Amino acid sequence: MESIKQGANYVAETVQGAVSGASKEANKEVAKDSNAPIGTRMSAAKDALGDKSDESSHDAKASAHKEIAKN
């Protein structure tokens, strides 16, 4: 039963990591867009950093859940 729970947690964290990664890439593109206002670009750059942190956190959690589910 515990391995099923850990497997579900692994999937959830993997999906959340992927969403954060996609958001990070979108924000990076906005930050690079020279046609966007500077405030928008700065905000997008800040958000991209936050998304990178979230992505790394979710990936680490997913890895931990995967290892626990194996045992």
From TrEMBL:
Traced from the root, the source organism's taxonomic lineage reads:
Eukaryota, Fungi, Dikarya, Ascomycota, Pezizomycotina
Q: Which InterPro entries match?
A: Glc-repressible_Grg1
Species, as recorded? Emericellopsis atlantica
Q: Where is this region: Disordered?
A: 19-71
Q: Report any Pfam family annotated for this entry.
A: Grg1
This protein's name: Glucose-repressible protein
Annotated Basic and acidic residues bias:
48-71
**Residue intervals passing through the bilayer:** none
